[in-house]
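Exercise: predict the fold of this chain.
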Amino acid sequence: MHPNAFIHLPNLRDRLTPPDRSELRVTPEVMAFWDERARSLGRTPDWRLTDRQIEESRCALVGELDPGRDVWIFSYGSLMWDPGFHFEEVRLAELDGFQRRFSFRSSVGRGSPERPALMLSLERCAGMCTGLAFRILGSIADVETAIIWRREMVRGSYRPLLQPARTPQGEITSIVFGPNPDHADHVGQLPLADTARIIASASGVLGSNRQYLEQLAAQLEGLQIEDPYVTALLAQVRTL
């Protein structure tokens, strides 16, 4: 990581898990551990996409970028506090036409088959989503984007896109893990009360659904990012 990676956001340095301490730096060894844990829980081998499917998805999108060029990753959820990859620079970033929503079911991670969680995605709608954009050096982009793809595309719940984003330092083109409405676990935007009820009760091997929401809200507050949906959802969950 470059010493000046946090030049635009110096207060973020202490609010981010370093990649070498992240449990979500998904190397092939970590993926093998996840597979073993899935087997121990009685899941079938198709609990996730195959390594080949994940890599084909990565190559299809990253192949649209100029070889050797730096790569930007837009983050709006857990990547904002635990990216798990090495980067050279981080900026605040605004993405038009999308907003955060807890819009897909998950029976792994922070949920279970008996009580699935709701995990964060983006949904296309008016307005914008403010998050972070991380710049990865072109010389390590293949390795680091593979780390990200194993994490984000493990079940194919997202649809990776190249999208323009605004930053205080200028416009960029970033990789965005957007919504995949064709996925079986995609539920779209549920009523706030229903979303809160599910989040308040679900938990899994990575912790509770509520803890995830609280981490998200805390990081947004620390970055002075306003998201009325997250604020209202957390207030509702805290009443349950």
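Check your answer against the key: The beta strands are 71-75, 89-106, 117-136, 158-167, 170-179, 203-204, 207-208.
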